[in-house]
Structures are given as C-alpha cells and as structure tokens.
Amino acid sequence: MNGDVWQLETADEQYACDLLNALYTSALRGNTKARNIIKKCFDGDNWKTIKARMDTEGSTWYVWYMDGIRVLLSQLA
Known about the structure:
This protein is mainly alpha-helical. It is 70% helix and 0% strand. The protein is built from four helices and no strands.
C-alpha cells in the first residue's frame, strides 16, 4: 500500500484504512480469510483486479479505495 498522501476525514476512516492495509498485507502472504474480507469490501472485483488496483494511485483509485473503506466501516459497525 502506498504512503498516506491524503488526509482522511475521520479517525474511523483512518482506522479502517490501517485495517484494510493490514488485511491486504496478510492476504498477499496467503491468508484466505483476509482475502475474502477484502473481496467483500470491493464487491464485484476479483482478487486479481484488487491486487492490480492496490498497486496504483490517482483520483480514480482513491474513489475506489474509499468506497472499500466505507464498506469495511459498515461491516465493523
């Protein structure tokens, strides 16, 4: 995951961002449970697509990523 270049709006978003990044690292190491949680955050994307998108940046990526953060937050609520 790329460094924090933006300011998130809330502490909850920062927590979810940190959690998603930790899950992603774990998924890259083969943790299928972490991979499945991430796939739920980015509904409609397969693991290959998620990995490719996580390695990019830009405004389109940011919108996609923040959509996943919001889904993760809703799952934690």
